[in-house]
Amino acid sequence: MQPSSFTLQGHHVSLEPLSQQHLPEIQMAAADGELWKLFFTSVPHPDNAQNWLNIALEMQEQTKAIPFAIREKATGQIVGSTRYCNIDHNNKRLEIGYTWYAQRVQRSAINTECKLLLLTHAFEQFGCIAVEFRTDWFNHRSQAAIERLGAKRDAVLRNHMILPDGRVRDTVVYSIIENEWPGVKQNLQYMRDKYQAK
Question: Residue 35: what pLDDT?
Fold first, then answer.
């Protein structure tokens, strides 16, 4: 489970190693819907995207994360980003986080397939026994999306983080554990195939 670069391929998306070359497309994806205005997300303002990208790549350099750019296969465009983070080698756990999508691809097959690819690799290649998801208490859309994946709510970490704007965030923690993965995988494949049938 070493943080190194690799690409995950699906029907609708490819998750490719995030790099400096992605900056212009990351700026365009973030601008679709002005997602940085949602105070409970980590979507970068286009003017701050370089700093956001530098931090993501620094996390990878420090073996703390594996960041990806999300490329929509139908258009060839970058439509968001996600990463493995909080990687705990000894306890075979990690988190899937820092995920955001351009507004036009939200509530589509994109998120379902991204999570299917990431979870499959985490459980079947890395040998994880648990995968976490964390989100802001106020991000109800994110909580609903995580629950649709089949993750279960573990806890609310109160006063968990002090954000750049000074707000103190409560964090909702979800997880999928190893023995749940076969059922979750089957459900995600079913959800993805329903999108394809439309």
Answer: 60
